[in-house]
Structure formats: structure tokens, C-alpha cells
């Protein structure tokens, strides 16, 4: 807050801000994408009075204009209850801050986190279910606590773009260890999609050029990076696979490319936009020259 205040002063402006509150709510997603629990690197915790201290400081800081509060519980949240609980905690906090410091909650952001369906066995609430639960809770607490309706913000990321992206890989070597496992090695891996290696994310896949053929064998799709943990999907049923086949992995539109790297000094893949039979290259494949450009 001090740094923001100084920067705003240097620019001779009064900066609107929201304070990110850590409500201490577990959204029951993977630990690495949980952000609203007490023991988190993000936000000012409600517990132990740190959020209150931050509100007080922000309100008394000359070049900052505290417009409201924000929280983001985490990503890939399959339940609506964590939002309801966090809204209750944060609105009660806003009410308390109103009484103590005349704080006006003009804006409230409940962050992102709406889930998408990655695997056939996962059950995902409809966007309307999140919307209903969140707005019902907001409306009833706002009237109960006698607060003015704040400008309301949501920050969905994955739910907007996740299902828009399909990753395509070409099959290289195939290694079968009888009675143990069949590895299908592909020309990408944790450098273009770190999610399976980082937090055990699960996906479905199909052989794109044999999409109508029956799935006949249980295989593991292995990336080409030097880690044994570089497995994109462990145990997936695929149609008979041969070198040169194309493996399609749906729901790669979020948190794949932005989290990609040159791990093992691998070039990043191209991105192609397709719609209605038309396609356009939106990002070209990285070349080895690209990788050497800083040397
Ligand atoms: C503050 C904040 N808001 C929103 C999002 C988007 O989350 P999601 O893609 O789960 O909707 C993120 C993701 O990291 C975030 O950090």
C-alpha cells in the first residue's frame, strides 16, 4: 500500500483500488490453485485483523481511493458453497468496516474459479448455478446487513477460454512393457502443458485421425521432456495408435500456452485459430533461432 501510494503520488493521481481479502475459505480444489485460505501468499487475511488494518491504512492514504473489496478463492472450483461462504464473510467484514471507519463498499469482486469439464467423469456446475448461488447470497446479505448494492465484478478465466482450445500432438515412439504399461510418446509435454506434472491435472484424449474407431487399449501419453513425471495422461483408452497419428487433447484453452516454457530448450508450438472450416495461424511455432536470440 505504501508503494502504491508513492507511485500514485509520483504520477499526481489518486488511484482507485480494491483490497484483496483472504476470507479463509477452502474451495476444495488442488492445493496449488487454492488462494483464499488463511495460509496463502495472496491477500490480506480476515483472521488476525490484517484485513482490517489494510482497510484502515488504505482509507487514510492520501493517494489511494479504496473503492471496495476483492477475493479470489482459487481455480477449478466445483462447488458453489465456497462462494456463498466467502461472500458472507466478506460482506460481514464490509459492514464492520462501515461501522468502524465509515467504509463504503462501492465495488465487490468475487474473483474467478468457475470450473470446466476436463474429464468425462467430472460433474461441473452450470454457469447459471454459480450465478444463482452468488447473486442470491449477495442480495440476501446486502439487505440483511443494510449495505448499498456494490458494483459487482466476476473474473472468470478458465470458464471462458478453457474449452476453446484443443492441443494436437503427433505420436512418435510407442513403448509397451508387457503386463505393465503402454507408453505413447508425443512431440510435446510439460513444456506446453505443465498442469498434469505440476498438480496432477487430468484430461481426456482421442486419436484425432481415428476419431470414429473404437477405443481398444489403455495407454499412457508421455511427453518428450527428460522427466519421468512428464506424462500428459496416465491411463486413457484410445483407438489403436501408430507413430504419426495425431492425439487431440480437448480443454487446453486455459493455462496451457500462458504457462508454457522452453523446458529442455524446446520450442513452443504454434497456435491456429479455426472456425467453420477456416483457419488462421495466430502464433507461429518457435524456431531454434528464436531460442538462441538472447545468446
Ligand atoms: C485474481 C484472479 N482472478 C481470476 C483468475 C481466473 O481464475 P479462473 O481461470 O479459475 O476463473 C485468476 C487466476 O489465476 C486470478 O489470479
UniProtKB/TrEMBL annotation:
Keyword Lyase included in the entry's annotation: yes
Keyword list, A-Z: Decarboxylase, Lyase, Pyridoxal phosphate
SUPFAM superfamilies: Alanine racemase C-terminal domain-like, PLP-binding barrel
Family matches, as Pfam families: Orn_Arg_deC_N, Orn_DAP_Arg_deC
Domain called Orn/DAP/Arg decarboxylase 2 N-terminal: residue spans: 2-162
Domain annotation Orn/DAP/Arg decarboxylase 2 C-terminal: ranges: 163-253
Keyword Protease belongs to the record: no
Cofactor(s) the record lists: pyridoxal 5'-phosphate
GO BP annotations, alphabetical order: lysine biosynthetic process via diaminopimelate
GO molecular function ontology, one term from the record: diaminopimelate decarboxylase activity
Protein name per its UniProtKB record: Diaminopimelate decarboxylase
The organism of origin for this protein: marine sediment metagenome
Lineage: unclassified sequences, metagenomes, ecological metagenomes
